[in-house]
Write a structure and sequence with these properties.
mainly alpha
Length: 73
């Protein structure tokens, strides 16, 4: 199930709640958002060097670029 469909299902369920239940749910969501999140590690751009190079190993770059340019015309 896509996240959009999942969100729409959740919203539909929330709409069916009574006012007090919606307030309680909102309070729980706010509490969850106040909790410290895990820190994401940043990646230095130089660490990405060569990433995905195996995808291009059998591709003639000149032909690829020519085909892409033709597609734009």
């Amino acid at each position: 199930m896509s996240s959009t469909a999942n969100i729409n299902n959740i919203i539909h369920e929330i709409e069916s709640l009574d006012y007090i239940s919606k307030i309680n749910l909102m309070s729980k969501i706010v509490s969850m958002l106040k909790q410290p999140q895990e820190k994401t590690t940043s990646t230095n751009i130089t660490q990405l060097k060569g990433l995905g190079k195996e995808i291009w190993k059998d591709v003639n770059i000149e032909n690829y670029i020519s085909k892409e340019r033709e597609a734009l015309d």
